[in-house]
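Weekly sync notes, structure subgroup
Attendees: PM, AL, DS (notes)

Item 1: joint prediction request from the bench team. They want all two components modeled as one assembly rather than separately. Inputs as received:
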Amino acid sequence: MPREPIKLPQRVESLSVLAADGRIDADLEPALDPADLRRLYRTMLASRRLDERALALQRQGRLGTYGPSRGQEAASLGVAYALGKDDWLVPTFRETAGLLWRGWPMQTWLLYWGGFEAGNVPPAGVHDLPIAVPIASQCQYGMGVAWGCKLRGEGRVCATFCGDGGTSEGDFHEALNFAGVYNLPLVTVIQNNHWAISIPRSRQTASQTLAQKALAYGMDGVQVDGNDILAMIVATREAVEKARTGGGPTLIEAVTYRMSMHTTADDPKKYRTEDEVKAWEPRDPLLRFRAYLHKKGLLDESTAGALDAEIAAEIDQAVRQYEQYRQDPAEFLRHMYAELTPELQAQQAELQAYLERKHAPTPAPVP
Amino acid sequence: MAQLTMVKALNLALAEAMRENPNVLVLGQDVGQDEGVFRVTEGLLQEFGPNRCIDTPLAEAAIVGGGVGLAFTGFLPVCELQFDGFSFQAFHQVENHVRRFRNRTRGRYTCPLVIRMPYGGGIRAVEHHSEAPEATYAHLAGLKVVIPSGPRNARALLRAAIYDPDPVIFFEPKAVYRAFREEVPDEPETMPIGKGVVARPGKDVTLITYGAMLRVALDAAEELADDHNVDAEVLDLLSVSPLDGELINESVRRTGRAVVVHEAPRHCGVGAEIVARIVEGSLLYLEAPVKRVTGYDTIIPYFQNELTYLPDPARVVAAALETVRF
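Output from the run, pasted for the record:
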């Protein structure tokens, strides 16, 4: 009859490996292949530069509304690195770094933000899902993918991303709840970037952490320094390994910061202070990773300079491909069903006739 | 051949698809141990086990959204939502994802799932259990919306829906579930989605309907013949998306008169689309304005008064006579 605390079998931990000041926890430091470390750095840098270019293109009217990923590269990339090739990644729209690592071409990313559905089509051999715009609804089909993986019994795992704002949506809870009930091989990663457009993390939930929400669904939660790529790799590897071997789902809260605006359609000065943004600058995941590689002797000034030039050329090439991309204006009608309905066939003919008239040369004026 | 109710016929369609294709899964709340609130999934847990007939927690959006992910991994999920009125809890998944994936990935990812739900009024149910939301779904491009009217076509259409490469919303008229039995062939049978049938041939007026209203229209046609010497043709559309415009126009051109019957509200109902198709396709063949006999533009009344709301043969007869006497 006494009143006593309830002991839960699940844990909520926090994890950080590489501190912002460069100190490292040697016990936790993952033993990564130097070639992998260099490739990871290259991808993170490419993601940052692509993000900057996309923003510039938007400002020049050469790209649509754009949601920058500046500052969130480590969280995305660490997860992508820890997944196997046959695993699934279900991204949100700030997973630039992770998707580049998984083999999505830069021009595909530009095509999406440039207003072409072709930006949702992964290259052959990559079976990640395209980005999702409605908030947290992707958690549901990510859970479904993990469910399918479990039923197939092939040891594949699914990692789904959402944001701190997404944790307020019902879909987030329903998906985690199902994942717990069926013990699914699902790793849910919250990119806690502290801002859902203008609403701060403190107004999304009264929870002290987002990671602790895991407990309610009977799974472990871990709050990771999301700007520390090493910590993200360690946490995700553990979660993926657990999922792969039947240990069930994990919730990872990656604590990061949206260094830029929500999208190019808003001005963050309206709702947050410059001081707050400045305070996060020293914790920039790219600077931290670069310092770590310098210290390890894996990167020096000359290789860094060569990398910059290589990446700039790659982006130039991707921008050219994106800007040269041409789409049949009637294509959008073709993909509604495996086989077009009679009504759509009629609408297709109607559109085709209209397009032909529209593009027909103007007849000479009657004298 | 066996004499089956619609419930039994649907059960047969599920069981035979699950037997022949290991990718077919059934998931939903109470579909396993309880065998579905209307017993449509009777025996499936026992025969196929909990990995193929899956009892889920109570969350419509997760049943549908989970189904989307299962489809991405090669399964053919049949999601059961317990009632039409609860389908809106999953509506955002249907709108945002189910219907869009083929288009937005140019065919790379598709959602060949079936979302089944008991549909319509007439069984004296509590509120939120008698809605007819077909127009809401029919408006969403990328979906197919099927509404069978009897045991035999229910079985054939569910089979077609399960193997359809695109998502199908499958409305099962509750008022028909156990209303009558019909001969259902032992061999698997399928019907094309998007094609209606002539349920009763006639020459004076076309009654166009689907679902539980088919029997109302057929009863009205009998009365028209017996009491008024009017020979009504009755069309059973079976699918409201795609809509069989060809069948409708072919019939209306012969009869010159049409009455659309459905239990859903009139405003922006499927009837409005049917009338538009008739106007576009057969205006100069019409002898009278087209009539609509439908639910009213209200919320369906609680069951003490639901029969006032639902079209009955008398309303259909009156409307048909108006067009005949115009």
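Discussion: The radius of gyration of chain B is 19 Å.
Action: AL to compare against the crosslinking data before next sync.
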